């Protein structure tokens, strides 16, 4: 147990908590008490002022409501009182002067009362006379329905302001009968004033409402006297009322249709000049809709409400002498309580000044104590990072064979991921001519697995190599979006799903000249300035290791494995396409073989099953078979077997491990790939085939009685076939990680990702590119 793991039972941890409470808690608590006190006083003052303002507002709106109701009643009095006066005036006029009396009364009222649009008088026999404003001038128009032999006609007289006849017109009445009109039918059988629904007056295109009353003349005829009142002028009158800064009024009839109100022209246009569609719109008149709903439930009076997160005061009052008309008034509460809000805002500003001063004083006190805590924490973090880097360097220093290029230096990438928190760390060695990078080791911290041996070419990644040539440590947040690292992300990082990249070039000396000998890459690492020093130390160690790599690799490239023992093996026998195993030292292989190399070559159907010209394919197939036999003899393969579209080649089926088996099979794979490419291309056939390899233990033995046939089975054979089936491109040699580990020093590979095999689990796949 280390000393930092020992717990002292006599230590008091509550001292630190009490100190933090005194340093931070007390000042914060004092500020909160000041805030609560000021907030409580301000809220109480605001509520008291608001209640007084609202009470005053309701009284004011009640007075405004009475004023509006009185003015609207006066506006409509020309129809109600005027109708009563006209009823008495016309009913007592002598029959001979009834027509002239109506015209005289109507003309006088039209000149004096602007809201009156026209007057009607109709009797029970269908007689009809009309006086209205001249739509084309300032005079009046007198209209009378006359009967002729050809039918009814309208006789029009147009008079100027002094009553002089200007012109006359006549036009067909088109069987017009006033007795079927609503204004006549609604009033003929009652003594009170009857109001009809709003209509569009044809001559002026204005919306009017008609008040009609019945009367009986001295001649005994029942008549109806009607008055048209302009609703447009009534709406202009309502718009002119100054209820408040944003208050408005509207008048609805008993069925909820709009009679007059704010923006009346827009209401008419929205209804398409159809009075039956002139109702409240919830989208644009939601406040009025809310007051009208409350009025229908609670009746007339004041109705405060909230709409769209705003407070409103609504009033509703019915109009006398109408068929249930109601005046609705809506005003925002802020129009009347704004001065209270302004007073509260000023109080709040003064309170804020006091609070700011208190916060500053408390903050200065807390800041002084917290700065000490932050400095101590920074020292602790820095010490922990220093200890981690020291432990990592110590682990690197004690690793055996660190500078021996024949040994793998896995500790370097492992410690890099631990110190920097990277997902993956890789060591890349630059080839002598600077045209390629070879991955010496790639460590994935998530799966704790090592890989390497794949190659990056300068030709394919020109921008990335230029970044290395600059020689500076570079950190890129999104490697795929940066043109300098996009190719590296696509080739190396995309399969792992990493995003950020840190690049640390490795400098070394060659013939007394400093140059880039490799690069250190970190994927998804913490990018912090203090990591640079550690990276430079690791890169210096790696540079020393790389300095002796070139000579060893060159010697390994030239020195092929000793294949003398394999050369002593007898040549294979070829019996009916099943290639029987040779005798090795007068002993037929039987049982478990520790190091068998298996290669499977798969040809696609267009090559092997083409029915276009079989005669031309047979010589090609025969030529391929001959070449396969030559290659098998040249590299002393153990056996070759043809199975349908597949060729299965084996090497190393011996009791003792054959270290040259996987090398000889790899050479045979490269030779076979080149031969098949050449033969298929010369025959103008698409070269579609793939090769898979694996290396490991396998079971083998002679089966049957006469003749006995040698067969090999096991996981190595299965994985080799899976590699052939999963190869990405034509002519690709896809190998397992066991082949990669055995040949990584003599051949170039590139990573292909991971694969899953039943009962074998997940493994990594590589593509054999070429010899080094």
Can you characterise this structure?
41% of the residues lie in helices and 28% in strands. By secondary structure, it is an alpha+beta fold. The chain has 4 domains: 78-225, PAS domain (Beta-Lactamase, 2-Layer Sandwich), CATH 3.30.450.20; 233-337, 2-Layer Sandwich (Beta-Lactamase), CATH 3.30.450.20; 399-558, GAF domain (Beta-Lactamase), CATH 3.30.450.40; 564-771, 2-Layer Sandwich (Alpha-Beta Plaits), CATH 3.30.70.1230. The longest helix is centred in the first third of the chain and has 78 residues, at 14-91. It is elongated and about 150 Å long. Keywords: Membrane, Transmembrane, Transmembrane helix. This is GAF domain-containing protein. InterPro entries: A/G_cyclase, GAF, GAF-like_dom_sf, Nucleotide_cyclase, Sensor-like_sf. The chain crosses the membrane at residues 21-43.
